[in-house]
Amino acid sequence: MGCAISGPGQYPASGREDVVAVASLSLSDRQTQLVKETWRLVQEDIAKVGIIMFVRLFETHPECKDAFFLFRDIDDLQQLRKSKGLRAHGLRVMSFIEKTVARLDQEDRLQQLALELGKSHFRYSAAPKYYPYVGNEFICAVQPILKEKWTAEVEEAWKGLFHYLTSVMKKGYQDEERGSCPREKPKHGPNSV
């Protein structure tokens, strides 16, 4: 089950790891259309794609399982494929992608959706270092489904979308992380002695 894009380093680095700048959604009109068209085809096998995507994720990056309480102790991939919890989580992720595609022409709403997902991932302790893997595995899962409709141009469009989503989710994660840290009281103020 090899995929040419699996592994780290698929998205450009944003510079400092402790500060994430949110990229703008830089899909061309043609790329936006390609994502929408191919998504309609993927929707027909939405549950299957979700399961394939996460089984591949855990197969190629087993360390990711630590971020998933329900799947942490399941080592057998066949058992994982049959897991109702995995199916449910895969469908939630596919629902997020569906909402993403629906908001491609509304960047403010799309950005808010991805920021909120990043914040919730902080609460679940799902580290940003894993986010790019999901996009890579999604791409690997849909290639066989789309067959000849999968082209280099389609791949670049989806990579661009996932790069954007990853960037915004990381920002949401960091915003939530900063907000949860106790703030230090000022040492000097108008009432200090």
UniProtKB/TrEMBL annotation:
Q: Name one Pfam family in it.
A: Globin
- What are the Basic and acidic residues biased-composition ranges? 174-184
User: What InterPro entries is this protein classified in?
Assistant: Globin (IPR000971), Globin-like_OT (IPR050532), Globin-like_sf (IPR009050), Globin/Proto (IPR012292)
Q: Which residues form the Globin domain?
A: 26-174
- Signal sequence segment: none
Annotated region described as Disordered, given as residue ranges: 174-193
UniProt GO MF annotations? heme binding; metal ion binding; oxygen binding; oxygen carrier activity
Keywords of this entry: Heme, Iron, Metal-binding, Oxygen transport, Transport
To which protein family does this belong? Belongs to the globin family.
Protein name per the record: GbX1
